[in-house]
Write a structure and sequence with these properties.
It contains 25 helices and 11 strands. Helix 5 runs antiparallel to helix 6.
């Protein structure tokens, strides 16, 4: 996918950036991990399982366009991918063409060739995969020039033997690294170049950038076929010694200023990081041979320690004596100006080495030192009153609101979504199932089991979908999950033996609100929900809202069964009053983030109401859920809560009041 995501490549195959994002979703959904096919995996002395290979994924995509599979029908051992339709067929066709060319090119690169044959092959690949335009032509031509030189080398050296791809890769890497794609050497006011021999031409200013301890002198990484590196002899070239000489040449070439930069402190813990050993030796030499009376020549005159951020106030505390040309300031009426300063006129002196010409960073620095600067909340005041149609609320939306009020408000009122869609694709096949993948598999097996199917019949389907580990490990894991699901199904099945009623349509008028929708899962005179997972506060809240809505028109109990325990709500005579309270909180949460967080709020209410603890102890219980610890993720780490409450502690009086108000009746009637 990294190859296809390059603009020069996807444009060659008539794809757009949105098309590439859609292809990423297909690759993720079909669980493509690595390997062209089983035979390709076998070439690495690994089992030739076809699951999670590119061939398996592409076959699922193509078959899914031709026929539906509904995640339960195989055709010739292939499970169709059901989510391709309409104009997406053209995108799929271009993607398949890309993979066909790519796999053919990989196969072609595996065979040894002569230098001229390698040049022809790589030129063909260059033309097949990269779309040329005015901006890219310079880079493509630089690669072609290297390949032309490779072809000429065979003729000049009369070398007709075949070489493998590793030799060609090493040659191209070194050649392109040395020549680059720039505009030549010394062709402009500022020249950027690598440190190479024979470039020790005098300059007024020479800057050596990135002279870090682990970067220079450069380490020699010789290819495996380099026999000279395997059997070194006196007089052989040493990359390390060459770099020491290049450093000396650079110092001698600087006529006025030699600027050397390196990372001197860790961004993690601010610990000191030494520079390149050559820079350390230079500073030691200066310190031993030069001195200033009553001053440290290194700290006071040679070494400048920059701050981590460019907007540090220290860059603007004292004005620098160097004028800024009017042409750079965009002000033709003044001959020159000094950098912006936080100090008064006349402060500072020639010794000031921390300065900046950035007006943007200057404004940021001023804000940092402004006394009494108050952090602004993401939503500092209430939003406008919602339109009247918001008072007609679907019961499913009402449930979504109370399971995450902040997310609901940002999504629905501001159209702001904080989920990261650009997640990395997995490159390794699953060796174990856990987390969300395990939960989804168990839920699917439970659904099939309750419908009367044998879970063992779906092993082939889950294997074809790439959801299981390969081989015996996958079989054992599937059998274990099947036994666990079987035990949970045996607990649920007696509860749903009563006849399943038709979905109940809801159309309730409460105050000036209206709740609409339908409720399913009513067996006899009881609403039953179940999930093969631990019971969570959001499960209680959803069941509670459905339970209240049903009890507006009939007396009915509600039950939720989880893997750890179950809860049941008895019929409620005053359901209307409770729903009215919830609707008023819903309306409040549409204008500003509601200080209600299901996990922390339940912890507070349970401690205060059910366990009879003091308010301080209940607050501690809520704070533990909100912050979390090194083993358990805190509720506050949610992206939506971080956006709205990062600068405050939302577990305040409103939080305590709303938590008790909502969970009091839930805990009383369960």
């Amino acid at each position: 996918m990294d190859i296809l995501e390059a603009p020069a490549v996807y444009e060659k195959f008539d794809l757009a950036e949105d098309d590439v994002n859609r292809i990423r979703r297909w690759v993720k959904d079909t669980r493509i991990r690595w390997g062209i096919d089983g035979q390709h995996r076998a070439s690495f002395d690994l089992p030739d399982f076809v699951q999670n290979t590119w061939k398996a994924g592409i076959e699922r995509l193509l078959l899914g366009y031709a026929m539906p599979g509904y995640d339960e029908k195989l055709f010739e051992g292939i499970l169709p991918y059901d989510h391709i339709e309409g104009n997406e067929a053209l995108i799929l066709g271009n993607f398949v063409e890309f993979t066909h060319r790519l796999f053919s090119a990989i196969s072609a690169l595996e065979h040894p060739r002569t230098l001229s044959q390698w040049a022809d092959t790589l030129k063909y690949i260059l033309d097949e995969f990269f779309q040329s335009d005015d901006e890219r032509e310079t880079e493509l031509q630089a690669v072609r020039n290297c390949l032309n030189t490779l072809e000429q080398m065979q003729e000049l050296a009369d070398f007709d033997e075949k070489t493998d791809i590793h030799v060609i890769k090493s040659y191209l890497s070194n050649r392109l690294q040395k020549e680059g794609f720039g505009f030549g050497f010394i062709t402009g006011g500022i020249t950027f170049c690598a440190m190479l021999p024979m470039r020790s031409i005098p300059f007024k200013v020479i800057c050596l950038i990135g002279m870090n301890n682990d970067a220079y002198p450069r380490q020699s990484k010789r290819p495996g076929f380099d026999l000279i590196a395997k059997h070194p002899k006196p007089g052989d070239r040493s990359r390390r010694n060459d770099d020491r000489y290049l450093f000396l040449e650079s110092l001698l070439s600087a006529r006025k200023t030699c600027y050397i930069s390196f990372v001197g402190q860790s961004v993690q813990d601010n610990s000191v990081i030494p520079p390149s050993v050559l820079v350390s030796e230079l500073m030691d030499y200066i310190e031993k041979n030069f001195e200033f009376p009553e001053k440290n020549i290194i700290d006071d005159h040679v070494l400048t320690k920059h701050r981590l951020q460019a907007f540090s106030p220290e860059y603007f505390e004292k004005p620098h004596p160097l004028p800024l040309p009017a042409t750079e300031r965009g002000d033709s009426d003044q001959k020159g100006a000094t950098p912006p300063s936080l100090a008064g006129k006349g402060a500072g002196g020639l010794g000031q080495r921390l300065f900046s010409f950035s007006q943007e960073n200057f404004e940021a620095a001023k804000r940092l030192i402004t006394p009494g600067r108050k952090k602004i909340q993401f939503i500092s005041k209430e939003l406008s009153e919602p339109e009247q149609e918001w008072k007609t609320v679907d019961i499913a939306d009402l449930c979504s609101f109370f399971t995450h009020p902040t997310k609901f408000m940002l999504n629905r009122r501001l159209n702001l979504y904080l989920e990261d869609d650009d997640e990395l694709l997995e490159e390794k096949e699953a060796f174990d199932l856990k987390g969300l993948e395990k939960y989804l598999l168990n839920e699917n097996l439970l659904e099939k089991r309750l419908k009367g199917f044998d879970p063992d019949d779906f092993f082939a389907i889950k294997t074809a979908a790439g959801e299981l580990p390969h081989g015996t490990v996958g079989e054992c894991a599937y059998q274990q999950f099947g036994r666990e699901v079987e035990g949970f199904a045996d607990k649920v099945q007696p509860l749903i033996r009563a006849p399943l009623r038709e979905p109940v349509d809801v159309n309730l008028s409460i105050a000036d609100f209206r709740i609409v929708g339908s409720i399913e899962g009513i067996y006899g005179n009881r609403l039953i929900r179940f999930r093969y997972a631990k019971l969570k506060p959001k499960d209680r809240l959803r069941l509670w809202i459905y339970h209240l809505s049903l009890n507006m028109t009939q007396e009915i109990s509600s039950l939720f069964v989880g893997s750890d325990h179950q809860i049941e709500y008895a019929p409620i005579p005053d359901a209307k009053n409770i729903l009215e309270m919830l609707l008023l909180r819903y309306w409040q949460g549409l204008r500003s983030p509601l200080h209600f967080f299901p996990q922390s709020s339940l912890a507070y209410a349970e401690a205060f109401i059910s366990k009879g603890k003091s308010e301080k102890e209940a607050e501690d219980a809520a704070l533990y859920c909100w912050i979390g610890n090194e083993h358990n993720r805190g509720e506050s780490e949610d992206a939506y809560y971080q956006r709205c409450f990062r600068h405050e502690n939302p577990l305040d009086n409103e939080f305590r009041k709303v938590s008790i108000e909502i969970f009091k009746d839930i805990l009383t009637h369960s």
